[in-house]
Amino acid sequence: MNTMRNPGWEWLMAQRWILPALLLIGFGLAFAIPEYNLLNKYVQLVMMYVGINIILTVSLNLVNGYMGEFSLAHAGFMAVGAYTAALLTQKVLPIADYPGLFPLAVLAGGLMAALLGLIVAIPSFKVRGDYLAIITLAFLMIVKSVIENIDYIGGPRGIPGIKKLTTLPWVFFWTVATIWVVRNFVYSKYGRGVLSIREDEIASDLMSVNTRRVKFLAFMVSSFFAGVAGALFAHLLQFISPRVFDIIKTTDVLIMVYLGGIASISGSILGAVLYTVLLEVLRPSNFAALVSWLPDVIFDPLNQYFIRHLGVWRMVIMPLALVLVMLYWPRGIMGLREFRWFVPKRDLDAHHRHVAHGGSHDAPHGH
Amino acid sequence: MTLLTATKVKHYFGGLCAVADFNLQLQSGELMGIIGPNGAGKTTIFNLITGVYRASEGSIRLRDVELVGKTPHQITALRVGRTFQNIRLFRDLSVLDNVRIAHYAQVHYSPLEALLHIGRYRREEQRIIDNSHRLLSIFKLEHLAGETAKNLPYGSQRRLEIARALAIDPELLLLDEPAAGMNPNEIDQLMEFIQWIRQEFKLTILLIEHQMKLVMGICERIMVLDFGQTLSEGPPTVIQNDPKVLEAYLGEGSIG
User: Fold this and answer.
1) Domain segments of chain A: what residues?
2) E strand or H helix at A366, and its extent?
3) Cβ contact, residue pair A206, B72, below 8 Å
4) What is the pTM of this model?
5) A217 to chain B, closest Cα gap in Å
6) Which residues have a Cβ under 8 Å from the Cβ of A32 and sit 6 or more positions away?
C-alpha cells in the first residue's frame, strides 16, 4: 500500500476520470502524429518500439513477476507471433487489397503463441525456479532451430520484404488492450491465484486455488501478448529472421521487467519506457544533439572521446544502471506496488473500508 | 453421522514408515484432538487428509467421497479447511487478499469474464469482498484489510490464518497447533474462540496440539499417536489415566 498521504496526491488519485481522458487524447495523438507529421519519423519509430516493449514487458511480468517464475521463452513466443502474422500477410491474406485485415494477422500471431504457451505451461506443474528457467530456455532454442530448418519460411535467412503495416495507432491500440486485459486478469480470482502461487504454492492449492488451471491461463495470456508484440514488430522492422528472436531479445524484456518492478503493470510501463528511451538517448548522434547547448569548451572535449565512443559505452552504462537499481530497489522501481488509477475502484475501496460489517457477530476474542 | 473415515491408512517416506495403520471415525459436529510427541506423524495425517501427500495405502473418505488420489484444491473444494503449524500466510499480499484467495472455488465466472470484466465478474467479486469483510470483522481484523499480511503481529497472523481457512466455507476444519507460541491467557481465549466458531460455522474440528490444557479442555475425544502408531483413543478422562499414554508422552506428573 502506498504510505504517502500527501493531500494533493490523494486528490489527484481520486480523479479517476483523468486516465480515460488521457487515453482519448492519446488515441487522438496516435492518429494525428503520423497524419500531420507532428514529430519526425525517427521519434515516431521510437514511440512504436516503446509501445511494443510495453506489450512485451507487461505480458512477461505476468509469469516472471506476478507468478514469480523465471521464464526465458518470451522471445520464442514473440517469434511464433511474428512468423505467423508475417506469413499470413505475405502469403495468405489479400492484404494489398484489404489492409484492414492486419489486426486479423496480429490476432492469429497471438493465438498461435498462446497455443505454444499452453505447452510450456505443462512443465511448470512439476518444476519451478531455475529448472523451469532451463526448460523455457530449451523451448526458446527449439523454436529458433525449427524456424531455421524450415525452408518454406526462409530458414536462417528469414523473411524479407514484409509490408509495413504497423502504424502508431495500431501500436497504441494493442498497447492499451494489453494493459487493460492483463490488469483485468490480475484483478480477478485467477490473478489472485497467480499471486498466491508466487507466495506459497502448496498453501495456495490448499486454499482451493486450482493451480494448474491458473498456470495454464497465466502462460496463455502472457504468450498471447508476446505473439501480438512479435506480429507488430515484424510489420514494423519489415524483416524477421530467427536471429532476431534469440536469448538477447528475452534478456532485454527481462531487464525491463525487473527494472520497472515485479508484479506491477505501471512498473512494467515505466521500465519499458525508461529502458527503450535511454538506449536511444545513448546513441552518439542523439546524445550529441541532446547536449549541444553546452558551451564548446565543455562540449568539444566531451565529444572528442565520450560521445564518439558512446556506441560502445551504452552497453556498459545501461547494465551498470541496472546493477545499481537492483542493489537499491531489489524489487524494481514499482515492485509489488501499483499506480492507483490502474487498480479497479472496487478493489481500492475494499482495502480501505473501515465501517463495521456484520455487527451481529460478537466473537469472544478480546485482543 | 460419520463425516470422515480413515481406514488402514499407511504412509511411507522412502523406507520410513511415518503413519502405520491409522484408523479414524470422525462424527459430524465433533471436536477431536490428536496428540503425540514430535515426529509422531500428526501433521503427516493432516497432509494425507488434505491431499498434500497421497497415502501409500488405505482409504480416507469424506462421507462417501474417496479423498486418496484427489489434489489438495479438489479436497478443499469439498469443504475441508486447514491451518498450518508454522503460519503459511501469503505474506506479501494484503490481509483482504489472503481471505479473498481462499474463495477461489466459490467464485463462479469464466476466464473470459475475468479477462474482460464482464458478465458475472462484478457481482461475484462484490460478493466475495463482502464475505471477506464479514470474516475479517468477526476476527477483529477488518481495519487491517489493506495491510500486508507479514506486517501483522503474531497473534493477528494466527487469527488471519483461521479466517482464511473459514473463507473456503469448510465443514471440516483441521487446526495444526493453533496454540503454538501463545501464553496461558491467550490459550484460554483461544479455547473459548474455537468453541465459538464451531457453533457459529457448524464445524467439525480435528486439531493437533501440544498444549495439554487446550486439548483436555475442549476436545471431546482424543487420539494419541507415537511413531505413526495409534497408542490410545478416548475421552480426555480416559486418556489422562491411560498408563501407556502416560509413559509415552505425558511422562510423570500431572496434566496442566
Assistant:
1) 39-336
2) none
3) yes
4) 0.93
5) 8
6) A38
Does B90 contact A202 at a Cβ distance shorter than 8 Å?
Answer: no
Average pLDDT across chain B, whole number: 93
Quick one: three-class SS letters along chain B?
CEEEEEEEEEEEECCEEEEEEEEEEEECCCEEEEECCCCCCHHHHHHHHCCCCCCCEEEEEECCEECCCCCHHHHHHCCEEECCCCCCCCCCCEHHHHHHHCCHHHCCCCHHHHHHCCCCHHHHHHHHHHHHHHHHHHCCCHHHCCCEHHHCCHHHHHHHHHHHHHHCCCCEEEEECCCCCCCHHHHHHHHHHHHHHHHHCCCEEEEECCCHHHHHHHCCEEEEEECCEEEEEECHHHHHCCHHHHHHHHCCCCCC
Residue A125 C-alpha cell reads as 506443474
The three cell numbers locating residue A285? 548522434
Q: Provide the pLDDT for residue B226.
A: 86
Please give the grid coordinates belonging to residue A58: 507487461
Residue B149 Cα, gap to closest chain A Cα (Å):
11
ipTM of the complex: 0.93
Nearest neighbour of A190 by CB, restricted to B106, B111, B197: B111
Q: A185 vs B114: CB contact, 8 Å cut-off?
A: yes
Question: Which residues face B66 on adjacent strands?
Answer: B61
Other beta carbons within 10 angstroms of residue A27's beta carbon come to 14
Q: Give the whole-angstrom CA distance, residue A91 versus residue A161.
A: 12
**Per-residue pLDDT tens for B162-194?**
999 999 999 999 999 999 888 899 999 999 999
What strands, in cross-sheet order, belong to the sheet with B221-226? Answer: B80-82, B172-176, B204-208, B31-35, B221-226, B229-234
Residues in chain B: 256
Provide the shortest C-alpha distance from residue A207 to chain B (in Å). 5
pLDDT digits (tens, 9 = 90+) for B1-55: 899 999 999 999 998 999 999 999 999 999 999 998 888 889 999 999 999 999 9
Say if domain A39-336 classifies as CATH 1.10.3470: yes
